[in-house]
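[job 0412] stage=fold_complex status=start
inputs:
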Amino acid sequence: MILGDIRDLLHAVVLARGEDMGMEIERAYCADLMSDVLAFSVNNSLLITGLTNTQVIRTAEVATIRAIVFVQNKRPDIQTISLAEEKRIPLLATDLSMFDTCGLLFEKGLRSCFGLEF
Amino acid sequence: MSSSEGVFFLTGKDFKNAGAASSNLKGILEGMCIPPAIIRRVAIASFEAEMNVIIYAVAGMIKYNITPERITIRVQDMGPGIPDIALAMKEGYSTAPDYIREMGFGSGMGLPNIKKNADVLTLNSLAGEGTTVEFTINLSPAE
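[job 0412] stage=fold_complex status=done
writing structure:
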């Protein structure tokens, strides 16, 4: 899926890297535990999370996550947003719940990282 | 491919900069044209080890050594030590307090994640003195 289409589908606001909305996303991983993201996500995937601190950006960077969606009307602080800008990781925020976010994306054909390596 | 070595110093409870050393290390590896799949393994293992130092220790350091054959990362800390290493290696076992869990860490996956990404892992710990985690990731597939 194109990131811009994900933004529209989730009625999300863009908090960082608005210029990257044309990027292609093939897989998604959803968690609030960053060690789970490090263990089970794959390269170039989308992270869906309710956690909004700077460690989320660090985690995304080391795990080569392409973009992040914050769910449930949660907003990161300015440090988190500037770190994402610096590391070139687009940030979206939606009012939808984590369940609805995943459900809508699944319905549109986005699939999980499960069972994939790297 | 050339060789490189260096060190990053870490301060316990410095959550603002937690992960910065592993991020810098990732940048160094990218500059050396190391394959992305290898970089990802090194960065994930290093980040988990770095978070352990930030969470549990007073201070620590990450030493890296990159040769054409392998990448070796040694993370040494002045911390409480790990009384039972076998237990600490178990997925889901953690002694982290709640505020660490609220940050998304301390779920008992740190050491298992390091092990998963490393080709060789050694862990030495002395109660009251500190812990040293050393891991190697091979670069030449023949090994």
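[job 0412] summary: Chain A touches chain B at residues 32-36, 38-39, 43, 51, 53-56, 58-59, 61-64, 79, 87, 118 (CB under 8 Å).
[job 0412] exit 0
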